[in-house]
Each structure stands twice: as C-alpha cells, then as structure tokens.
Amino acid sequence: MSLPKPMMRGLLAKRLRFHLPIAFTLALTAAIAFKYTVTEPKKQAYADFYKQYDAVKEFNAMREAGIFESVQPTGK
Amino acid sequence: MLRLTTGRVGSLLARRAIAAVTTSSTRMASKEVSESVDMSQPMYWDRVDIPLPDKPYKDVLTDADKSLKQKEKGPWGQLTKEEKIALYRLTFCKTYPEMKQQTAEWKTVIGGIFFFLGFTGIVIWWQSVYVYPPRPRTFDDEWKSQQLKRMLDMKINPIQGISAKWDYEKGMEQTRNDPGCRDAGASVDASFGFALSN
C-alpha cells in the first residue's frame, strides 16, 4: 500500500499562520477591555474627586481629629 | 485500624529496605529468608506496559512441560484448549485482567496520608505551645479599631479605597449600592486588606 508522503516541512510556519493572528487579536482585545473597564473609570473617579475637593476643609477636619503633631486641634 | 495501617506502612518500608540491601548473586553467603535475585540476568515482570518480558516465566521445565513445548512446534490447531492455557502459563505468570485487578492499596495510602496529617497537627500544636512568641498587641480588637479610626481620620485612600467607602456622616461603612465596589467585607480585617492593596 502506498500512502501519500506526509508534510515534512513548514509545520511551525503553518501553525504560526493560524495562531499568530488569533493571539494578537486576543491580546489587543484584552488590552482594550482593560483600558475601558479599569483605567478610564479610575481616571474619571480621580477627576470627580478633585473637582469638589477643598484642601483647607479636609485639613481642618484632620486637624480636629488630632492626627497631626505640628498643629493641635483648635480647642487647645 | 491505625495500628494496622502503620504496620503495613512499616512492612512496605522494610521490604523496600531489604530489596535495596540485597544485591547481586555474589553475596549468596548470607542466608536470608528471601533469596537474593541476580539483577544482571534478564528478569520476568508482570507489567501492563511491558507485554513481553525479557524471559519466560518458567525456566526450568518438567518433562511434561518439555513434551508440551515440542508439541507447540507443530501446527497449533492440534493443541487442546487446556494445553494452550498450560503453554500460556509457562510463559506468563498473570494474565492482563489478573494484573489489572484492583488492590486494596488505596486504603493504605489514604490511611498513611491521614496518619501523617495527624502527626503534623501534633507538631503544629506543640509549636504553638512551646515555640511561638507572644501574640503581637496589634492584633487586639481595641488596637485594630483604633487603627481603623486613625486611618479614616487621615483619609487614607479617599478616592477608591477605604475612606471612600466610609460614610462620615453616619460613622459607619456605606451600604453597598455600588456594583463596582470591590470591597465585600464589612469587618475590620477586610477593610485593612483592601485598603493596603489599593
């Protein structure tokens, strides 16, 4: 019985031709998904926080709580 | 049952020790209960992945066996069923189904596992009594609650972390209506771990 000669060369190239586009697509998708689920919300959260941030008010609140050593709460 | 298991484990270890100690046939002077096997000659094994061992099972044939072997040289159709089975048993010790028979070894294994787990437990208990230093004071509930209060006063992680999740008007943790909230625990310990990771 004579079988056809099997593929002897180019096996890695064939595999790469198939898998490499898939790999790149998946990697790109993962990066885009991460950007829009994690980094963009985080940036927005920081922007929103600092829009309404009053540094002096926060400082005074911390001062009253008594965590500083350089300034005492206003009572003393 | 425990004693039986340790006995079996002990006998397994002893057998392995004996097999390691007894070597080639040049040491035949010491008469032991099991005679030493000459490992330089081809050996017979019953193994599922070696269907044809290095030598047939029975080397020394009786006269009846020898005559059977002679008959084997002729056409096999003339052999009766019993003769065929006898020839098989000359060459092989166990058949494949006999080799693949389930043993009760798993009970020994599980028993050994539990035994050593228990022994480890005893070692750990002994360590907790005689080895460990006294518990750090930072683990006391009072210390932990004071620590949390200080973190909240300092507004640690005010944007997405612990101070963002704290309701300063009510003086307690916010009710979870935000589905993106990553902190699931309401306890002090969960707050610490989450705050440190963010």
UniProtKB/TrEMBL annotation, chain A:
GO cellular component, one term: respiratory chain complex IV
Pathway this chain belongs to: Energy metabolism; oxidative phosphorylation
Pfam families for this protein: COX6C
Annotated GO biological process: mitochondrial electron transport, cytochrome c to oxygen
Keywords: Membrane, Mitochondrion, Mitochondrion inner membrane, Transmembrane, Transmembrane helix
Major localisation: mitochondrion
Compartments reported by the entry: Mitochondrion inner membrane
Membrane topology: Single-pass membrane protein
Alphabetized InterPro entries for the sequence: Cytochrome_c_oxidase_VIc, Cytochrome_c_oxidase_VIc/VIIs, Cytochrome_c_oxidase_VIc_sf
Subunit field text: Component of the cytochrome c oxidase (complex IV, CIV), a multisubunit enzyme composed of 14 subunits. The complex is composed of a catalytic core of 3 subunits MT-CO1, MT-CO2 and MT-CO3, encoded in the mitochondrial DNA, and 11 supernumerary subunits COX4I, COX5A, COX5B, COX6A, COX6B, COX6C, COX7A, COX7B, COX7C, COX8 and NDUFA4, which are encoded in the nuclear genome.
Function field: Component of the cytochrome c oxidase, the last enzyme in the mitochondrial electron transport chain which drives oxidative phosphorylation. The respiratory chain contains 3 multisubunit complexes succinate dehydrogenase (complex II, CII), ubiquinol-cytochrome c oxidoreductase (cytochrome b-c1 complex, complex III, CIII) and cytochrome c oxidase (complex IV, CIV), that cooperate to transfer electrons derived from NADH and succinate to molecular oxygen, creating an electrochemical gradient over the inner membrane that drives transmembrane transport and the ATP synthase.
Family note: Belongs to the cytochrome c oxidase subunit 6c family.
Protein name per Swiss-Prot or TrEMBL: Cytochrome c oxidase subunit 6C
Organism: Neolamprologus brichardi
From TrEMBL, chain B:
Source species taxonomy: Eukaryota, Metazoa, Chordata, Craniata, Vertebrata
Function: Component of the cytochrome c oxidase, the last enzyme in the mitochondrial electron transport chain which drives oxidative phosphorylation.
Cited Gene3D superfamilies: Cytochrome c oxidase subunit IV
Domain of life: Eukaryota
Quaternary structure note: Component of the cytochrome c oxidase (complex IV, CIV), a multisubunit enzyme composed of 14 subunits. The complex is composed of a catalytic core of 3 subunits MT-CO1, MT-CO2 and MT-CO3, encoded in the mitochondrial DNA, and 11 supernumerary subunits COX4I, COX5A, COX5B, COX6A, COX6B, COX6C, COX7A, COX7B, COX7C, COX8 and NDUFA4, which are encoded in the nuclear genome.
Protein name stated in the entry: Cytochrome c oxidase subunit 4
Membrane topology per record: Single-pass membrane protein
InterPro entries given in the database record: Cyt_c_oxidase_su4, Cyt_c_oxidase_su4_fam, Cyt_c_oxidase_su4_sf
